[in-house]
Amino acid sequence: MSEPFFDVFTLGETMIRFTPRGYIRLEEAAELEVRIGGSESNVAIALARLGVRVAWASKLPRNPLGELTARRIASFGVDVSSVLWEEAARMGLYFIEPGAAPRSSLVFYDRAHSAASLMTPSDFDWSVLDQARHLHLTGITPALSATALETTDRAIAEARRRGKTISFDVNYRARLWPAELAREALLSLIHDLDLLICPLGDALQVFGLDGAPEEVAQALGEVTEAPLIALTLGGGGALLWDRSEFHLAAPFPVQAIDRVGAGDAFDAGLLWGFLQGDAPKGLRYGMAMAALKHTIPGDEWVSSLAEVEALLESGHRDIQR
């Protein structure tokens, strides 16, 4: 059997992101900065920046917004040849109003009936997974629609049938579906994985799991067969449980310019280590990548492996000369 062409294949929705400049409120904004953003494509872009061979698939409208999205993702070295184009569909949009303490940042979605939400299992040629080592998915895609849920389930089944490794980030979005519905759907998706990633808050809100991080990680281990469980702890860092040992990565102090995409940057770092057979190393790299992402405007992680390793080696420096 030939060597897989891609290290990682991922699938999900990417939206057009509109942001007022500075800290202007949306209701007073005279202009909006246009970018893109989506959890799976954010992970794909970050992995590509690390030198990982990665492909991203979705359904996009055949219009300038869809073309902008595919072109932007491809510009980072991500393969977009599996993207499906829908003639009569719309692009999902989201608006972010940056805040500074004590005012929180706000996100407003306009993504109902988007092209990505129309995806069905029969849309995709799943033989593309023959060319990949690993499948990465999140809990956002199954929240988009009943058919997107079916597509996520099919992707996992097709990857497992081909002997691929699979990672899944719960990534719960309360504005997309209620916790009860998410729990019911996700329990059927996460039972047979290689790596489960879950924010501590999602473990409580979706699965009703409370307690110390180590206890929550072990409790998650009872609802999945995944040999690796990563729990992100917000300002407390991240925890990895390999069923025999706990690994903790401390957070880095950050001055947050843009928090959006930090979790995706963490996922990419963790996957980078996982693909090398060293998930604890990936945990540390993921925390460094998340910290760097906080300092970068937009959803994408526009950094480098050298910058990550410099941060891990010597910590923050005001000026690098």
Question: What is the CA-CA span between the terminal residues?
Answer: 48 Å
Helices and strands, in order, run as: EEEHEEHEEEEHEHEHHEEEHHH
Derived from helix and strand composition plus strand pairing, the structural class reads alpha/beta
Q: Give the C-alpha Rg.
A: 19 Å
Overall pLDDT level: 95
Question: How many beta-strand runs?
Answer: 14
Main beta sheet strand tally, sense and closure = 8 strands, mixed
Low-pLDDT parts are: 317-321
The share of residues in extended strands comes to: 15-25%
* Oligomerization: single chain
What strand order characterises the main sheet?
4-1-9-10-11-12-13-14
| Mass-distribution shape | globular
Helical residues, percent? 25-40%
Tally the helices: what do you get?
9
Short description, anyone?
The protein is of the alpha/beta class and about 325 residues long.
Can you put this structure into words, describing what you see?
The protein is α/β, with parallel strands linked by helices. The chain has helices spanning 39-49, 64-74, 146-161, 179-189, 200-207, 213-220, 262-275, 279-293, 305-314, and strands at residues 6-11, 15-20, 32-37, 54-57, 59-61, 84-86, 93-97, 106-110, 132-138, 165-169, 195-199, 228-232, 238-241, 246-249. The strands form three sheets. The protein has an eight-stranded mixed sheet with strand order 4-1-9-10-11-12-13-14, sandwiched between helices. Strand 10 (165-169), helix 4 (179-189) and strand 11 form a beta-alpha-beta unit.
Main attributes?
14 strands; alpha/beta; 8-stranded mixed beta sheet; 321 residues; 9 helices; globular; single chain; 4-stranded mixed beta sheet
